[in-house]
Amino acid sequence: MAQGGQEIRAALRGDLHSHSDWSDGGSPIQEMAVTAMELGHEYQALTDHSPRLTVANGLTIERLEKQLRIVGTLNKHLGDFRLLTGIECDINEDGTLDQTDEMLGRVDIVVASVHSKLRADSGSMTRRMLRAIENPHTDILGHCTGRLVTGGRGTRPESQFDAARVFAACADNGVAVEINSRPERLDPPRRLLRQAVEAGCLFSIDTDAHAPGQLDWQAYGCARAAECEVPLDRIVNTWPVDQLLAWAGR
After folding, report:
1. Could you say which residues of the chain have pLDDT below 50?
2. N or C: at which end does the chain have fewer Cβ atoms within 10 angstroms?
């Protein structure tokens, strides 16, 4: 791990992007929560996919409502640990979010991510991302370039967008730029991560875990955050849960 990465990892209180077997993860909600507790987290956000991403078994309104009830029940048995409700919401081609305002207002954490038309021209992608960032429900901009650098799914180049405008919008709207820790993503690339630091953005170091064993991948994101001199106080998942939820409910 890069110099300083251990310090950042020790300061993290939770992880704000993870999936269960309700969408395209491999394990039950309870197993993901217990594993997060064993790693020393104070909280974990469950952010299964939104309905449009049918390939990932995205949650309809009815399934998401059922999941919210289950998380509420689970939290009565998890002691001081808090399982946060959430969604990884597709950013539609027109920049709207793939869930109703009512449901987005009911979850704790909204990660907004582009999963389609990743090779669109820079102008179209920039407009799409800006509209999502300006949506008051958006808390975190997920894996912003969509790139894949290794792994079983092959490689994929970065999406093209006006990074200066996108990161300025994130800073202006209090939206955190995700530092995605998945080894095949490591998104954003270092040059863009440094640019986001300069733009004054907030950050969230997340695993995007789809299985319990992936919840300790935060070390990869922490190493990159240290390399790119991300200020500790701008990493939202170092904050106590009450401060985090106050920000997310802004």
Report:
1. none
2. C
